């Protein structure tokens, strides 16, 4: 991937500051919420999935670096980091799925699957595929992913206040849907969609 291609994304991010900075604030809030969940473990009140929450915190920090320092971000280092995160999340997911099939509760399966897809989507956005001249069709995967993350945000918001099967599967049992689980999830959806759109619009 050439540095010039990432600079195109950086220019897009800096140009739309009216969207960029609210997303930054949202990611700071999400990171604080997840960090608090990891520090203040109270099993009698709600269950904390350390692996999925740690994945969420890492992704929040990665997104903050790319959004706050777009011009200073080293695309090669960031691509290596996102590759490592994708592989690590996929390994954790495989371990959870194996335990699920062995009879364990499906705790964190969908959450880790989500983070694996999010990390892979960010890696795709940085890989320069959508910037190829004369290859308009190459933008469709990024556009489809952006739409899917947007729809997931709407689905998550629609589950607020409703203990649906989907909500219980994604979020820790007993956690307050509007703070400890829902906000970081929706923020990650919006932030990932924004970066994918930036990759398309560069």
Q: Could you describe the 3D structure shown?
A:
With 202 residues, this protein is mainly α. It is 74% helix and 0% strand. The chain is built from 8 helices and no strands. The protein has helices at 3-15, 17-39, 50-68, 75-101, 109-126, 140-158, 165-170, 177-201. It is globular and about 50 Å long. The two termini are 15 Å apart. Residues 130-135 and 168-178 have low confidence and may be disordered.
How would you describe this structure in keywords?
202 residues; mainly alpha; 0% strand; globular
Q: Looking at the structure, what is the overall shape?
A: globular
How far do the termini sit from each other?
15 Å
Number of helical segments?
A: 8
Describe the largest sheet. none
What's the alpha carbon Rg, rounded to whole Å? 17 Å
N-to-C series of helices and strands: HHHHHHHH
Mean pLDDT: 77
Q: How many beta-strand runs?
A: 0
Strand residue percentage: under 5%
Helix content: over 70%
Question: Could you name the ranges where pLDDT drops below 50 across 5 or more consecutive residues?
Answer: 130-135, 168-178
Helix and strand content put the structural class at mainly alpha
What's this entry about, in short?
This protein is mainly α and 202 residues long. The chain has eight helices and no strands.
Secondary-structure blueprint:
Elements: H1 3-15, H2 17-39, H3 50-68, H4 75-101, H5 109-126, H6 140-158, H7 165-170, H8 177-201
């Amino acid at each position: 991937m050439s540095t010039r291609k990432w600079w195109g994304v950086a220019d897009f991010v800096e140009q739309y500051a009216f969207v960029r900075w609210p997303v930054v604030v949202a990611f700071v809030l999400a990171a604080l919420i997840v960090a608090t969940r990891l520090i203040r473990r109270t099993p009698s009140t709600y269950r904390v999935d350390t692996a999925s929450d740690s994945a969420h915190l890492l992704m929040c920090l990665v997104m903050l670096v790319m959004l706050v320092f777009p011009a200073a971000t080293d695309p090669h280092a960031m691509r290596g980091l996102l590759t490592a995160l994708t592989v690590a999340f996929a390994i954790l997911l495989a371990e959870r799925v194996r335990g699920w099939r062995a009879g364990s509760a499906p705790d964190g399966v969908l959450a880790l699957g989500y983070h694996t897809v999010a990390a892979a989507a960010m890696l795709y956005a940085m890989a320069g595929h959508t910037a190829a001249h004369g290859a308009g069709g190459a933008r469709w995967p990024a556009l489809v992913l952006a739409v899917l993350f947007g729809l997931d945000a709407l689905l998550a918001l629609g589950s607020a206040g409703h203990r649906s099967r989907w909500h219980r599967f994604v979020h820790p049992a007993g956690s307050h849907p509007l703070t400890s689980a829902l906000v970081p999830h929706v923020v990650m959806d919006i932030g990932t969609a924004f970066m994918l759109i930036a990759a398309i619009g560069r």
